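Exercise 3.2. Students should predict the tertiary structure of the chain below and write it as structure tokens, then compare their answer with the key that follows.

Predict this chain's 3D structure.
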Amino acid sequence: MYTRSDGLGRLIPPGTHGVGNVRFPRFPLPKTIRFWRGLVHEFSLAQALVEQVVQELDRLGIQQKVHSVEVAIGVLSGVMPEALTFAFEVLRVDPRLQEARLVIRQVPTRCSCQACGRWVEVSQLVGQCPLCGATEIRFLGGRDLRLEGIEVEDFLPGDST
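Answer key:
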């Protein structure tokens, strides 16, 4: 049964796509490819994060190894924590960051219901007010990624050894 048209008046068999007269079966992407496609966003974020950490270490004159880098991620940011951790581990080429681990804290957001006028904290994207069920809601925050701390081994200000 043909259900779709290719725009030129020709019908396309379901479950296929292609160009011209050539048709290819449509297969779902393997899980690993879907994971890698999702990493592009996290790699750019991890690169910016590593650069920010290195700049801060240089600004403070810190040469010691970093134990951990703490970040807060808003639940509406679209950042996959596992992908960000993987990207961070790949990009931590500075010798001070070689053993650093990324500590991620997910930050909930608040939404305001226009129908009942109340604020409620949510830990995921919702389509309706958890209190009254109305769909007229607005979100406050939850889209950010913030560097919150850098834990360094035995550092005293002015100590560069």
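Discussion points: The chain has one domain: 44-161. Residues 46 and 88 are 5 Å apart (CA to CA).
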